[in-house]
Amino acid sequence: MTLYFTKDHEWIDVAGDTGTVGITVYAQEQLGDVVFVELPEPGRGVKQGGEMAVVESVKAASEVYAPVSGSVVESNDALAADPSLVNQDAEGAGWFTKIKLSDSGELGGLMDRAGYDAFVKSLG
Amino acid sequence: MSASSDETLHITPLNALHKELGGRMVPFAGYEMPVQFPSGILTEHKHTRAAAGLFDVSHMGQVRITGADPAKSIERLVPGDVQALEVGRMRYTMFTNEAGGILDDLMINKRADDLLVIVNAACKQQDIALLQAGLPDCKVEYLADRALLALQGPEAVAVLARLNPQIAALQFGQGAEILLDGISCFVTRSGYTGEDGCEISLPADAADAFARKLLAQPEVKPIGLGARDSLRLEAGLCLYGHDIDTTTSPIEAGLTWTISKRRRAEGGFPGAGIIQKQLAEGVTRKRVGLRPEGRAPAREGTDILDISGNKIGMITSGGFGPSVDAPVAMGYVAAASAAIDTSINLLVRGKPLPARISAMPFITKRYAKA
Regarding beta strands B31-36 and B52-56, do their DSSP bridges make them parallel or antiparallel, or are they unpaired? Predict the structure, then answer.
């Protein structure tokens, strides 16, 4: 299992040809209280950097982008009942989807934890 | 998303306190204001409905009007019945334009020697110019040296009564000069949350210490603009520039109750002819409450469709109501579709989201009996 991060504040934890995707702790802090998450149906194809899900806070709706291309194999049904899981455990129980990667080469363009932490720090 | 370093932003007397409390500062109407504190909008919203929330609304404009008969004079600009106001009473009204649209909404407090007018921050300069031009027989003074705080929630009056028991005698919609913690304040029992509470005008240089004193009370927490917006939306109250503007009339906006029988008959305010015609013949669209089914919020700008798919209007404010625990919205729809419980669809991200027209407020208002 290897963890990667995007500049749009998504994470993907890859095991074999499948990755679990969510938004980062920093992203949920910026969003504030999450009240609704719109997740893709299993089977849907996604493109790296393309819209994958929508996360709604009290204030605003934000798009969540797919960190890799592939097809959605599962979405986290627990978020429908309790969207606050995204705030409580963004990089754990608050995961969004599992994606079967179509091109593992795309992972090369993502950051590791140290790279992402440095990126967030640079945002001030 | 992050705090702006824009040097042109104004600050309120509580700016340092907001930052010390961990407020997330954002630009709003030319001011650097806290959108939320570390506890977050949901918690702040619910705390205000359960206990007492302290809001800094010092960015709003406080304008003092003096003259021979300022109540009569200001009626040239607003449809509200200001002459009927007794000393110590307040009225919600709006500046109208010749088309019957709304230039800003405001509160007018009638005091023994003047009118104290509270206007929106974003419209402040325009409103002052309008008052100066429209009331040449009056003196119009912008009170730049006054701060404005709101303490809202079921415990708000009890907290303030601890500082001066006179507070408890104020009825909703009433105001008085009251000494709080040794500071001469003008306090009104009013607010923008649907809860009981007070708004307190006080000298800017006393605001920081006074706010700290209130925050030291166990019931009181600081509340940012985010919760201010969700609270007023649940209460069905209009936000200028969103739910009302120069293209909406007070009648379309459901603010007919703010215009007395005398003012309806006499007119004498900008756009009176159009507004009188709307009162007599009805309007083609109305502001309504909306309750989407399910959990997905529908935001400002969302198209409202009838069940056949025809566009009948648009959402002007929408989000998640923390106390309703469901999405809530308001917007304008064709009058034929404005009846409570009418089924409609909201076009959210290209998909129709079922909703129905709802009565407002979305929560039970708990104002003190007037």
Answer: unpaired
Chain A: residue nearest B299 by CA? Answer: A60
Please give the Cα distance from A50 to A38 (Å, whole number).
Answer: 15
The verdict on a CB contact (< 8 Å) between B2 and A54 is no
| Domain-located, residue B102 | no
Mean pLDDT by 10 residues, chain B (370 residues): 61 98 97 97 98 98 98 98 98 98 98 98 97 98 98 98 97 97 97 97 98 98 98 98 98 98 98 98 98 96 97 98 97 97 97 97 77
Q: Would you state the pLDDT for residue B131?
A: 98
Q: Which residues pair with B311 in a beta bridge?
A: B305
Give me the residues paired with residue A34 across strands: A57
Domain residues for B290?
Answer: 284-370
Q: What is the pLDDT of residues B5-36, one digit of tens each?
A: 556 899 999 999 999 999 999 999 999 999 99
CB atoms within 10 A of CB B350: 5
| Closest CA in chain A for residue B4 | A124
Indicate the residue of B2, B227, B299 with minimum beta-carbon distance to A124. Answer: B2
- The sign one gets for the Cα dihedral B292, B298, B299, B301 is negative
Smallest Cβ distance to A59: which of B2, B226, B296?
A: B226
Chain A touched by B35 (CB under 8 Å) = yes
- Write the CATH number of the domain with boundaries A2-103+111-119: 2.40.50.100
Domain count, chain B: 2
Q: Is-contact B150 B12, C-beta < 8 A?
A: no
* Chain B residues with beta carbon closer than 8 angstroms to that of A58: 41-42, 45, 226-227, 230, 319-320, 322
CA distance B323 to chain A (A): 12
